């Protein structure tokens, strides 16, 4: 009994150390976001005067509200687009066993994004779409679509097909069976895949770096631009980092059990 | 009917992915800087020949593999060890698992910049901690020799959780009988882990490593956010060099030929992995 207690304590201790180490950058980000430039550069580790003035600056001076709106528009737009294209595709792939087609869509997750960025840049420029929300949404959909499709394939496979067959016998069309029976039953799957697609669009940097214009800059670009000032405003930078990451972290807390299976979607079964 | 359901998604993938890759392939035989006055000039294989004579490209290949192999090795060992630790029942397990997930969902650019502050040579926390142990300050991301190890540190922080959590999921789906049999036969706890758990969970580990490998080769955000490939070219991986050629030098032909090589490399790795996995499972 006694050794068991010690064993458990040591185990707990190891777990705590690991969690402390992996959470530390978040703690440091939060602490630094409430210090001024002098406190950060003087190198005193734990200075006990906090202020929220960095957050005020980020909104007032750097106009972050505008970038938040941009990020929201692109993230919602690309998630919606991915659902519109991905849901019917996932349904057909699940019901008619079109695995090959599923692999083609999954390829979008494997191929490096940078290999299509140059043509996009050229074509969007010629079509006068460069720097528009449309270009950003289309590019982010290429990230969201594979997630939506693969999560939904495995979800729809768990819905018994008898329901749709019965509906078709009663005179319902295939499309009707899909919209009236499969979609209403897919709520949890749609939730999970939308949230993942949203997070990936929110976090996306490379596509926005190439395709966004001054007016459509998303948050990752806005925070990256902090670096172009001659002296880096570290406090402001950390406040901006908090503003970007906290929404994602909060969402992740609620859907944690789906995230890992979602990110590994396709690979775990294929 | 079934084609009608998939048609929009397939068209989208064709237009947004397949067509651009074909376009890039074609462009890789031209020289063009996107000017409207000088049209693309056909140079056939010149871009590819120049590429293999280009030291920056050759170094970028080496760096990409160095970064990927080192990061992946550490992430796998650490990730599996942590998964074994998390597999037991303990108080607050769910909260701990949730907290552990956060590094991989947090916006990489933002977290890269947080690490940039922590590793800053003069004001960063890392050197202050080293000073407590009387270790002289290090240059971290600012030194050509330490920049890749520093980036590996950031990548390990960001992605070890993914390997761990996939392996934890695999562990909890495992049958109990082999353990009971091993305990009856008098196996110690370490023998149990080494000879029973790890072989059983190996396919799951393989999947996790595969996913990570494909993504690690393409690492862009944390590198570009913290160093943009510098100091000098010391952290310029293939992905970064491709971006620089295309969007800083506007040498679109040269960039295209490089991206085709990069594309071939990733596809080659993926196919090799799938083939290896099939062989190992048979």
Short description:
The complex is a heterodimer of chains A (270) and B (282). Chain A is mostly helical and 270 residues long. Chain A is built from 14 helices and no strands.
Give the topology, please.
The complex is a heterodimer of chains A (270) and B (282).
Chain A: H1 2-33, H2 37-42, H3 53-60, H4 64-96, H5 99-110, H6 114-126, H7 133-157, H8 162-169, H9 174-185, H10 187-203, H11 206-211, H12 219-224, H13 234-254, H14 256-263
Chain B: H1 2-27, E1 30-31, E2 41-42, H2 46-53, H3 55-87, H4 93-105, H5 108-118, H6 125-132, H7 147-172, H8 177-184, H9 189-217, H10 221-226, H11 238-247, H12 252-281
Antiparallel strand pairs in B: 1-2
Helix pairs in contact in B: 1-12, 2-12, 3-7, 3-9, 4-7, 7-9, 9-12, 11-12
Structural summary, described in words:
The complex is a heterodimer of chains A (270) and B (282). Helix content of chain A is 77%, strand content 0%. Chain A is mainly α and 270 residues long. The radius of gyration of chain A is 23 Å and the shape is globular. The mean pLDDT of chain A is 85. Helix content of chain B is 74%, strand content 1%. Chain B contains twelve helices and two strands, in the order H-E-E-H-H-H-H-H-H-H-H-H-H-H. Chain B has helices at 2-27, 46-53, 55-87, 93-105, 108-118, 125-132, 147-172, 177-184, 189-217, 221-226, 238-247, 252-281; strands at 30-31, 41-42. In chain B, helix 3 packs antiparallel against helix 9 (189-217), helix 7 (147-172) crosses helix 9 and helix 9 (189-217) packs antiparallel against helix 12 (252-281). The longest helix of chain B is centred in the N-terminal third of the chain and has 33 residues, at 55-87. The model of chain B has no long low-confidence stretch (mean pLDDT 87). Classes of the chains: A mainly alpha (270), B mainly alpha (282). Chains A and B meet through helix 1, helix 4, helix 5, helix 6 and helix 7 of A and helix 1, helix 3, helix 4, helix 5 and helix 7 of B.
């Amino acid at each position: 009994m006694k050794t068991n207690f010690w064993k458990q304590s040591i185990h707990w201790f190891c777990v705590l150390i690991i969690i402390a180490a992996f959470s530390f950058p978040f703690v440091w980000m939060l602490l630094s976001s409430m210090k001024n430039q002098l406190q950060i550069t003087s190198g005193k580790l734990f200075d006990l005067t906090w202020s929220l003035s960095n957050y005020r600056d980020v909104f007032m001076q750097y106009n972050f509200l505008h970038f938040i709106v941009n990020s929201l528009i692109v993230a919602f737009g690309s998630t919606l687009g991915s659902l519109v294209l991905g849901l019917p595709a996932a349904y057909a792939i699940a019901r008619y066993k079109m695995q090959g087609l599923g692999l083609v869509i999954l390829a979008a997750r494997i191929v490096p994004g940078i290999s299509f960025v140059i043509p996009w840049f050229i074509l969007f420029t010629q079509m006068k779409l460069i720097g528009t929300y449309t270009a950003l949404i289309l590019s982010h959909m290429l990230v969201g679509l594979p997630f939506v499709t693969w999560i939904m394939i495995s979800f729809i496979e768990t819905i018994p097909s008898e329901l749709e067959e019965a509906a078709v016998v009663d005179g319902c069309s295939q499309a009707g069976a899909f919209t009236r029976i499969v979609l209403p039953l897919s709520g949890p799957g749609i939730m999970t895949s939308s949230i993942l697609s949203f997070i990936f669009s929110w976090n996306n940097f490379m596509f926005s770096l190439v395709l966004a214009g001054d007016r459509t800059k998303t948050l990752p670009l806005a925070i990256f631009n902090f670096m172009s000032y001659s002296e880096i405003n570290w406090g402001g930078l950390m406040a901006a980092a908090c503003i970007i990451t906290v929404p994602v972290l909060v969402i992740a807390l609620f859907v944690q059990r789906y995230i890992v299976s979602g990110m590994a979607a396709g690979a775990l079964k294929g | 009917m079934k084609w009608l359901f998939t048609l929009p998604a397939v068209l989208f993938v064709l237009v947004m992915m397949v067509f651009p890759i074909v376009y890039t392939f074609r462009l890789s035989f031209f020289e063009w800087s996107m000017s409207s006055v000088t049209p693309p000039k056909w140079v056939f294989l010149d871009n590819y020949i120049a590429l293999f004579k280009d030291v920056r490209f050759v170094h970028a290949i080496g760096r990409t593999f160095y970064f990927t192999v080192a990061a992946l090795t550490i992430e796998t060992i650490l990730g599996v060890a942590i998964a074994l630790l998390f597999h037991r029942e303990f108080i607050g397990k769910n909260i701990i698992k949730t907290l552990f997930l956060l590094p991989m969902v947090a916006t990489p650019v933002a977290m890269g910049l947080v690490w940039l502050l922590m590793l800053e040579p003069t004001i960063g926390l890392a050197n202050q901690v080293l000073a407590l142990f009387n270790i002289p300050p290090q240059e971290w991301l600012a030194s050509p020799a330490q920049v890749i190890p520093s980036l590996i540190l950031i990548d390990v922080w960001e992605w070890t959780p993914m390997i761990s959590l996939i392996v934890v999921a695999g562990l909890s789906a495992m049958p109990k009988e082999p353990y009971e049999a091993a305990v009856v036969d008098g196996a110690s706890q370490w023998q149990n882990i080494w000879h029973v758990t790890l072989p059983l969970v190996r396919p799951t580990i393989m999947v996790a490593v595969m996913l990570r490998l494909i993504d690690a080769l393409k690492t862009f955000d944390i590198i570009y956010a913290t160093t943009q490939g510098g100091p000098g070219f010391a952290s310029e991986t293939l992905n970064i060099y491709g971006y620089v050629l295309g969007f800083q030098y506007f040498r679109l032909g040269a960039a295209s030929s490089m991206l085709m090589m990069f594309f071939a490399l990733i596809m080659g790795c993926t196919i090799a992995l799938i083939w290896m996995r099939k062989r190992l499972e048979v």
